[in-house]
Every structure is written in C-alpha cells, then in structure tokens.
Amino acid sequence: MFAINPFAALSSLVPPGVMQTYVVIMVILVAAGTLFDILHKGSAKYFFNNFRKSKGKPVGGGELVSIGVKTAVVDVLASGEFCSAKRRVAHLLTMYGFVLHIVSTVVMVFALSSDSLWAHLWWIGGLMLLAGGYWFWFFIRADVAAEGNSPFRVMHADLFILSLLASVTLGLIWAWLQARGSLWSNVFFGLYILATTVLFAGVPWSKFAHMFFKPAAAFEKRVSEADGTVQNLPTLSRDDPAQRDRHSMELLKDAPRDMGLGIKREAPRHY
Questions:
Q1: Across the 271 residues of the chain, what is the mean pLDDT of every consecutive 10-residue run?
Q2: CA distance 233 to 230
Q3: What is the pLDDT of residue 184?
Q4: What is the secondary structure of 100-129 as a DSSP string?
Q5: Residue pair 6/188 in contact by the 8 Å Cβ criterion
Q6: What pLDDT was estimated at residue 271?
Q7: Is there a contact between 171 and 193 (Cβ–Cβ < 8 Å)?
Q8: Domain 6-233 CATH (choose: 1.20.950, 1.10.3470, 2.60.40, 2.60.120)
Q9: For residue 223, what pLDDT is reported?
C-alpha cells in the first residue's frame, strides 16, 4: 500500500490530463490568492515603506547577505520565532510534512511513476503533517491550552488548518481504501478533492499566504535590529528611564531586574 502511487492507480477512472490540469489550476489559485492577499492587506507596501523610512546606520551588502542566511536558517527552516518547544516541533512537523506531501503529489501526478520512493514520501509527509497539525489543534492552540475552550470550537481563522488537515486526512484514507479495492475509495476521493480545493482556493480568506510573507517580515525585523531602528518603536525595558517612570511600572522601577517576569515562568492553563 505504501509503495503504490495512488494517482497512477486512479488513471483508469480520471484521465491523467485532468489530474494535471487540476494541479496547475490549484497553483494558479495560490499565486492569485497570495497576490490578492498582499495587495488587500498592504503587506508589501508596509515592508517597502519601513525600509524606505528607516534612518538607522547603513547596513552593508555583506551584512544583508548574513541577515538573509540567518533568516532562512533560523526563522524559516528552524521556525525560530516560536519560544515554546512544543509549538516549534508541531510547526516543523506540519511544515516539512506539507512540503514532502505536496512535492511528492506533484511528482506522482505528472510522472505517474511507479517508483515506490515518491509513494513512501507521500505517506511520510502526510503522516508528519497530521501528527503536527492534530497536536496543534487539540493541545497547543492558545484558546484550548490556555483558556480551556473546546478543541471543536471553530472560527473563521481556522479555515487554513482545518482545510489542510481535512485534505491530507481524506487523501490518506482514499489511498488506503483504494489499495484495499473498496468502493468507498471513490467517495473519499471526491471529498479529498473538495477539501483540497477549499485549501488552495481559500488563500485570500485563510492564513495560507502567511508562509510567503512571514520570511519577509522576519528579514525586515532583523535588518531593523541591525541598523538600530527596530521599526522606531520605544523599548519596553526598565533600562529606559522613560519606560521605568511609566505609571504601570512604578512598583517595579526600583525592583531587582529579575522581578516582574513571573508570568513567563509558567504558561497559563485554563484560567
């Protein structure tokens, strides 16, 4: 089962050209949806204006390359923005599982190869994604872990993760049923296509596009730290007299430096 290309076995029911055209349409929808999202939210304009208005010290080309490498390695490949180890592991499982699953899907659809390597990668990627995604959904989400809300409470912001989990879950079930020769496989294939279409066509209304502009945000943040502007925001440290004398800091301004951080020692649980 794990060594069989499910899309090759499907070719007797759905012509390969139809499957390949569907993949191309999904790619176009993602590109168009991401572009719409960037223009609608003004993300690109925001980052461009930040760079243009930055008045910090000049950052050389070599330093920019170094910052770009750090951004790619730490923020993108290692998900360094997450302080929680559990959140980072869940995100990495989901991210790398998604990449493996999508790439192997494209290869198997266009090549219709019987090479078991891509079929194994398709299953491994899908299972990695489900492990990270369901772990996040049921145990790590802030409104579940910290606020005690039901894991079955669904909001508009959950469109991306739910359609992603539905697509991969239904896809693996379809492949499993197809390998067993079950007539139910056609039903689950239809559901798989429906969930996948929602995932890729819903880019303007989900968090899908964030995977494209989050690296830009991380890079811009590192550059602002390097040139000293830090987006021209005031510090929140008691090292700054203006911050130390704020009304909300009166009880802490003469306190030891390690006081006032109790909230960071243990994450809130169901308060």
A1: 86 90 95 82 62 62 80 80 84 95 95 84 97 92 72 82 96 95 93 96 80 73 71 56 64 64 53 45
A2: 6
A3: 92
A4: HHHHHHHHHHHH----HHHHHHHHHHHHHH
A5: no
A6: 45
A7: no
A8: 1.20.950
A9: 75
Going from N- to C-terminal start, the domains of the chain cover 6-233, 236-271
Among 159, 19, 144, CA closest to 86: 144
- Residues ≥6 apart with Cβ < 8 Å to 253: 238, 244, 245
Residue 109's identity, in one-letter code, is: V
CB 15 within 8 A of CB 116: no
Length of the chain equals: 271
The answer to whether 128 and 100 have CB atoms below 8 angstroms apart is yes
CA distance linking residue 45 with residue 43, whole number of Å: 5
Tokens representing 189 are 């294939």
What pLDDT is stored for residue 256 in this prediction? 66
